[in-house]
Write a structure and sequence with these properties.
Structural class: mainly alpha
Strand order of the largest sheet: 1-2
Distance between the termini: 16 Å
Largest sheet: 2 strands, antiparallel
Number of helices: 1
Length: 70
């Protein structure tokens, strides 16, 4: 079973994606590795950084598995 995220939450995720890409651009200008592996727990096992864009449109849906826990 899947659950669709509320539109307000989806907009928050979109805002976070935009801010994250701005931070990556600022890091690149500061001489930090471009698109380095994210610092998350648990750690990412493999990472190949690249260049690109994430665009969320009006019909974009972010779906979660409610059994995934919180």
């Amino acid at each position: 079973m899947v659950q669709t995220i509320a539109r307000g939450t989806a907009l928050s995720v979109a805002a976070l994606a935009i801010l994250s890409s701005a931070a990556v651009s600022a890091s690149a200008r500061a001489g930090v590795a471009v698109n380095a592996a994210p610092q998350v727990v648990p750690a990412v096992q493999q990472w190949t950084g690249g260049v690109g864009l994430l665009r969320l449109g009006p019909d974009t849906k972010i779906v979660l598995d409610p059994a995934g826990g919180r």
